[in-house]
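Reading group handout, session on sequence-to-structure problems. Before we discuss, look at one worked example. The prompt was deliberately terse, the way you'd type it at a terminal:

> structure Sucrose-6-phosphate hydrolase

The input record follows.
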Amino acid sequence: MEWSREERYRRIEDESEKNLKELKEKVDNCPYRQKFHIQPKTGLLNDPNGFSYFNGEYHLFYQWFPLGPVHGVKYWYHLSSKDLVNWKDCGIGLKPDSYFDSHGVFSGTGLVKDDKLHLFYTGNTRDENWIRNPYQCLAIMDKNGEIKKMDKPLIKAPPKGYTDNFRDPKVLKNKEKYYCLIGAETQSNQGTIVYYESDDVLEWNLKGEISTKFKGNHSGFMWECPDYYEIEDKGVLMISPQGIEPEGDKYLNIFQSGYLVGDKIDFENGIFNHKDFYELDRGFDFYAPQTMEDENGRRILVGWFGLPGLNCVTDENGWAHCLTIPRELKLKGDRILQIPVKELEKLRKTERKVNFALNNEEKIIDDFNFRTYEMICDFNDFSGNYIGVKIRKGEDEETVFYYDLNEKKLVLDRSKSGKSCTDEYGVIRKCKMNCEKLKIQMFVDTSSVEIFVNDGEEVFTSRIFTKEDSNSISFFTDGNTKVKASIWSI
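And the output record:
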């Protein structure tokens, strides 16, 4: 179903109670609703926003269009948590109700200052000719959870030389100054980051671009959702570039999310010396990640479990997308490790253990009937061409993850993973990895799988839409291997 412009920019406040109730019932009856992932009550969810630790709690917002599974006028929806597992519904955090965000409260970040949570965001507006003007805006939340917008934007327009693709402010403190990093597109269609400096987060002065070596035809026309942090005397810059062409096994999704690790950014001169660009995730459905530092000094990431510009299987049920599980980030050389946060162990219920050897065979786990679960499995002493695991096996369905010993590649195959709307971008994802041992940690929800390999060296994040009775697990090899696994129902 095509949505008109008028329908996409209709606000939830103007919708009838009857229509909202019918939409909610439609969503609730969807067989693909998640059990332990953050998902919208109705409509479309996209980027995580304002991810912060404030007043003894984690605060997380997300982009939300309430009335259907399309990108329309965006709100920020607000959740809070003590443990990153159990989330309290705090309702709508920010509404598109001001002249500087009339067509959507777009993405942004959170910063704790003066015992208040400062929420920086892009206000999306359109004039009568549908020409866009992005404003960079600020709202402030107090310890009672009350959020108040500033009455005027902080930055009123993109600087000369940049298009209206100018959004997603990341605000941080460095030494005694505050810096605002904004994803941008130059007039020559080059993705970049423009940054500003401030003494008080209210008055901002343009500094210029962050200079990187990641430029040219292979770096994309627009960099969305910048995120920057410093760890172990290094700087880590995350971006979601749009417009990178596929290159072998890399960059196969419609858009990418990745990172650069290097020296700390020289904010005085706008210079970032860094190593290679790496994709954060090797799966089919990951974008716009955001990180924060909690009270224990952990750097934690949450991403959008989806991508822009694509349909979703659940569209017909009136909703689309969810967020990933929270992941703790660690650094190993110039690579990021992503490790599911320890708090997720609270979700574990019944445990099933298996321990056996395989010899050119596939072994199905008997009487396995968990639909949502966490699994940790170790493969040791392996030989042959491949070793792997199949999940969500049914009569004509299976999702296959394996290690190709000859090519030294990890492979995710979702060609038989049930319904799909994105096969045009392929059904297989691969990445290089030299494995002397193989440890796989999976989180399987009703319609998703997140796969962490060798303690987060590589991650595959993907939606899968299988039948309700496709729940079997099997392990396989064409050679020899020892398999040891623990599986917990969730």
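Points for discussion. First: DSSP finds two helices and 32 strands in the chain. Second: The two ends are 35 Å apart (CA to CA).
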